[in-house]
Design a protein that fits this description.
CATH class of chain A: Alpha Beta
Helix content of chain B: 10-25%
Strand order of the largest sheet of chain A: 5-4-3-6-7
Largest sheet of chain A: 5 strands, mixed
Order of helices and strands of chain A: HEEEHEHEHEEHH
Structural class of chain B: alpha+beta
Strand content of chain B: 25-35%
Number of domains of chain B: 2
Number of strands of chain B: 14
CATH topology of chain A: Glutaredoxin
CATH topology of the largest domain in chain B: Immunoglobulin-like
Strand order of the largest sheet of chain B: 3-5-11-8
Radius of gyration of chain A: 18 Å
Helix content of chain A: 25-40%
CATH architecture of the largest domain in chain B: Sandwich
Order of helices and strands of chain B: HEEHHEEEEEEEEEEEE
Number of strands of chain A: 7
Number of helices of chain B: 3
Number of domains of chain A: 1
Shape of chain B: elongated
Oligomer: heterodimer
CATH superfamily of the largest domain in chain B: Thiol:disulfide interchange protein DsbD, N-terminal domain
Amino acid sequence: MVVAFVVALMLYFGYHHARRSGPSMAPNLKQSSLAPDFTLPSLDGKPTKLSDFRGKAVLLNFWATWCGPCKIEMPWFVELQNQYAAQGFQIVGVAMDDASKEDIAKFAKDMGVNYPILIGKESVGDQYGGIPALPESFLIGRDGKIVDKIFGLRGKAEIEDSIKKALNTKADTSQAAAGQ
Amino acid sequence: MIIDKRHPRNLESRIDMNLRSLFTLAGCERPSFRVDSGNSVGLGKGTSSLLPLSPLKPAALQRLRYALRCHAGLLGSLLALLAATIASAQTPGKAPSVTFGAIPPVTAQRAKVTMVDLNFRVPAGYHINSNTPKSEFLIPTKLSMDLPTDIILGKIDYPAGEDLSFPFSPDEKLSVYTGDFTIAVAVHPLHAVTPGKYEMHGTLRYQACDNSACYPPKALPVSFAVKVVKEPAAKKANPAQSPHAH
């Protein structure tokens, strides 16, 4: 009886969570762990390192040109970049795409993207839990630690809340000092 | 007498087997019930520390006592499983897989075009782009067949996509396939093909999304058998009547 009840519960919760259309957290990477550093080329070919943005609150957004939901949040990102740039906020897009660099650049231009787009590669995706689906974003505090993860499309207000969380972090001055 | 636990018709052995599974799950020491000739039950080696041997107890009571002792562990195990199930459901899963419904060998006549219907299924809750998506950046569903040597695989007929809008883009309609859809392939064995069975191979490339996220493009291997048969013998025309025939 107990077994049947618990198994039924498992099936019920499993089914409903699996069918839930809302996004959930990406696996593997824990919040408050240091965001894995990487170097990727930007659309103009310049190698860009994630740690170059240390001291800023960063929204690291994995996306692709073929991803419909990614296209929806891009105009929000453009607005949020404008809105919070002065407070030390930076969006970094990573295109996990098979499309050519030119196509990615055209797409970004059409969307009016005002933040750097880097050409992603699988190994960087693996560093961030494999990126099983897009869009997927990581909010990184000024100290380089992950403060939030967003899987799938969420509302602009929720994204903004996460950005504020990242902005409320303090830069790790000891690391900055060590780096000088 | 040792109970034969392998015999499926033996009720007692089945109870034993079920209990064993649950005990193992709960981390209880595996009991080894033994019924002696005096119809009393004992425990096999290695279990005496868990429960004292009481030869006078009937077998069912012994088992019940075991079940109660291990109940907490069992419940704990099941709750842990429940938590694991919820946790795994909360994490983003693997990309959904479109499935191909295998079809029986298709009979195709030489020198004639035969259309073969290939049936696919998109898992519930997901959609894939149709063959003609509405944006240049969306990845179309495309079937590519390997080229055989003597059998021409001609035109591929894709179904029209459904024009649907999704929560992530309510104002825009996308051309998609959901649920079951069929792609037809024209099979044309040349006149010179030796009659017999041939295996056709190909790949369906698609890219799936749900209501809030999209998954990387995937390739699904597709194959079906074609049985090539000779064209029917031409009907013999009636020989012209000889004007001299009698």
